[in-house]
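Priority: medium. Attachment 1 of 2:
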């Protein structure tokens, strides 16, 4: 069966995603990509903004985990160790396997789980295949390198459709 590449929701950056917005969608487990989603690639350690956002999520009862394809587990370990959150490294996104592994670790069901990421062909596609909500952000710190610029340009039409759908839904309920 074909899987949609249209994200369910779009945000500018991760801090736009509040516990209230997550609660409205019934989300209790938020899986997050690391690079360009929670941290620019150049950021070596978690900053105060990320720590504060995680505290707010925690206080609201939302579990945050990292789901990363990063080749260096050391980077993921550094972040998760300092932030005291769990992770699935070498997640193999868009395979749904890592997503399922994370849900099993957290003891959460797909209908209460979302993935937050900046890439369609890994984060969003994997979320769709795993049957969870796909939330997308603009790349934090902006795309770096030619390949990332091309990739993000290719993602634009899909994001445009998602934006239109969200606007339509909003207009229907307001
Ligand atoms: Mg990323």
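Attachment 2 of 2:
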């Amino acid at each position: 069966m074909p899987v949609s590449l249209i994200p369910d929701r779009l945000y500018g950056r991760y801090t736009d995603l509040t516990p209230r917005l997550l609660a409205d969608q019934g989300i209790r487990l938020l899986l997050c990509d690391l690079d360009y989603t929670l941290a620019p690639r150049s950021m070596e350690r978690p900053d105060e903004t990320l720590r504060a956002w995680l505290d707010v999520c925690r206080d609201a009862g939302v579990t945050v985990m990292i789901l990363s394809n990063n080749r260096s587990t050391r980077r993921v370990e550094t972040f998760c160790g300092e932030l005291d959150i769990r992770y699935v490294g070498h997640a193999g996104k868009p395979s749904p396997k890592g997503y399922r592994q994370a849900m099993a670790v957290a003891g959460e069901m797909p209908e209460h789980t979302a993935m937050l990421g900046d890439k369609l062909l890994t984060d969003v596609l994997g979320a769709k295949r795993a049957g969870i909500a796909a939330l997308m952000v603009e790349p934090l710190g902006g795309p770096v390198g030619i390949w990332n610029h091309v990739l993000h340009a290719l993602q634009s039409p899909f994001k445009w459709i998602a934006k239109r759908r969200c606007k339509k839904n909003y207009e229907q309920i307001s």
